[in-house]
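One record is set out below.
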Amino acid sequence: MTRPRTGPADDAEARARDLRDALGDIVGALHLVDGAVLGEAAQRQLGRALAASRAALRLVEAGGATGPTDLIGLLRDLEDRWGGRAAALDSALAVSVAPDVPRWLPVDQLTLERALSHLLALALAGVRGGSVRLAVDRGAEALVFSVGDDGEDGAGRAGPRPDPAEAAALAEALGGDLVLETRPSDGFGARLALPRAVWDGPGSEVRDDGDLSGMVVGLVGLPEAEAATIAGIVAERGGRTQSLAMDETPPSPACTALVLDADAPGAADLLAAGPDGPVAVVAVTGAILAVHRAGLADAGADALLARPLPAPDIVARTLRAAVETRRAAADIAEPGPLDPARLERLLDLAGPEVAGELLDRLIDDLGTAARGIAAAAPARDGSGLRSHTHVLISLAGAVGVDRLQRLAEALNLAAHATDVPAIDRLGAEAGEELVRLVALIEDLRRQRRAAS
């Protein structure tokens, strides 16, 4: 008996995955378009298409970005997308942000993005030749997003206006209050207020480790789509990229960092040669085994990115941390470990009654830092490393141990970035320097006690 032919199963998960891949291809392809050859109007629409594609990809990926929302990055995307739509309507979008508004908000990015998009759609409905504004201000009790237009309201407006009910539902999901105002003389107006309890919490003061302003990143041997993705991430955060062949030496100091396909032929030779000066190397690899990853670090990579690429904020933080770690390491001068004259001056200023106590306290604090780093570095305990290196930076600076101070600064940066190869390398070096420093100060203490 011949069974009837059937089509493929309607697998919603598979269709979502295919849609996500297709959107990823659209974003990647748009990033490859050379905007410099386009006119201003075409550049505006290219930015609109990119921002809309990224928004669609976030919707498909469900839930948006994890962790705090980068408000400035979100507003840039909204300006690209809705400013492009306004331009197509012979209108304009103006975005303003008060200087005291926090950059990072502990709210769901996707929900906030959708709420503001709905309000901008309401403001843009039927606008011709006018302008739309989006302003963010920080009040005493609320963070306020104001959206409005200068068009005339009423039946004379061209085009249907979207239903505001969904914007109200999204505002409620954020824990905010939404007020809509429509006046014939002033056009459309909306005010979304997020109470302080919503936005002024853990995550609102996150350090911006993803700012790549002024950075020039050389992309070496990467697949086309991967290179386009990284180029987009760098461009969105203020940097720029160059495409380099595997055998091409980057013009120093044009490149701040290299992103290298570690799995490509010739990558090992490039790592072995090493770039000139403080140029960081970030290796992209599909290797899973820890021993292979450790081998890349030993070969000269300052940081690693795994395939498939992680979230954009992780890529940006990895690039920035690699550059800062390489610069700090390049600034670390060779010995001596201690300037005795500087320490003696500190002791003289303290006076004979306090000098002995100061030495005792210094030895105790350095010993605590040494033990803390010795325990935290092998465990890759970022919190412990940040705490102990913070103390060590202050102590080493006070007694004039420049090399140890810079080692502590570099180790602190590596701990912030969870850069395991750098933590292992710098933790060992800082530990050795600390042992030598404590021994020298203990010897000085013995000399002073013998002389008294």
Observations:
- The longest strand covers residues 187-195.
- The longest helix spans residues 420-451.
- Confidence is low (pLDDT under 50) at residues 1-7, 153-158, 331-336.
